[in-house]
Amino acid sequence: MTSPQVLNISSRDNALFKDLKRLAHSNTEYRKQQRFWTEGDHLLRAALGRGVRPTIGLFAASYWLEAPVPYVQAAPKNIVLGDALFDELSTLESPARLGFVFDLPQEPAIQAGAATVILDRVQDAGNVGAILRSASAFGFKQVIALKGTAALWSTKVLRAGMGAHWGLQLVEGASLDQVDVLTVPLLVTSSHRGSYLHQALLNKELSMPCAWALGHEGQGVCAELEARASGHVRIAQPGGEESLNVATAAAICMHASSTAHLA
């Protein structure tokens, strides 16, 4: 195996360092640079497990000599930074001392018959990442993010997704017209319309594949998307809360659909 190229950077005025810092700290810089930043070893292992390799590895100088061989050999190019510089690059309260840059994958064409999650202006990065993780776990391999949704490849969404990104087909900045390509049933959660989810499950009203539409944390699904729905479903809340967190609701709904054939 060819040894990776190693570059040492000791100045914050280095042009490459400046580019990488913008990449790490901006939610949308990845669209401009067509690459994205991850920190720590968990996301690296998740990527390698799916056959995806980074293009650049970055290591704090104090960690470089003790870094495990698989991490050092993961990318064709490694950059060693002084610890203070790595701390500037890091977006974590406790820097992980290693990070990786990946090329942004080419956006896939929408698959009309795929089990799908539609995100309509879901703005909290933690919610979006958690939804992606649930989607991957429950067999919803396609995620369509409408305009106004948190940036899917931002560092916060990547951290919350815990590696789910590499098992999903992700479409960003989509329009409602693109949703019309789908041929699977489109389901929307509602606080006042449709069957209760547990009843729909018992009555064989849920199917897989399907598409679940999940909306803005405060406003819910927009009227135009709701009008496209083939069904509305409510989640029973015996404890009496007014509503559920969108990521929690998403997990409940996707699990119900993915296990409908077992009911």
Task: Give a brief rundown of this model.
The protein has twelve helices and twelve strands. The protein has 263 residues and is an alpha/beta fold.
Quick one: biggest sheet?
7 strands, parallel
String of helices and strands: EHHEHEHHEHEEHEHEHEEHEHEH
Q: Total strand count, please?
A: 12
Question: Strand-residue fraction?
Answer: 15-25%
Helix content, binned percent: 25-40%
Per DSSP, the total helix count is: 12
Widest sheet: strand ordering: 8-7-6-11-9-12-10
Distance between the termini: 50 Å
Structural class: alpha/beta
Radius of gyration, in Å, reads 21 Å
What does the overall shape look like? elongated
Ranges with pLDDT <50 over ≥5 residues?
A: none
pLDDT averaged over residues: 94
What does this 3D model show about the protein?
The protein has 263 residues and is an alpha/beta fold. Helices cover 33% and strands 22% of the residues. It has twelve helices and twelve strands. The chain has helices spanning 15-25, 29-33, 42-49, 61-64, 69-72, 83-89, 125-137, 155-161, 176-179, 197-202, 223-226, 246-258; strands at residues 5-9, 35-39, 56-60, 77-81, 98-103, 116-120, 142-146, 169-174, 186-189, 195-196, 211-215, 231-234. The strands form two sheets. The protein has a seven-stranded parallel beta sheet. Strands 1-4-3-5-2 form a five-stranded mixed beta sheet, sandwiched between helices. Helix 7 links the parallel strand 6 and strand 7 (142-146). It is elongated. The mean pLDDT is 94.
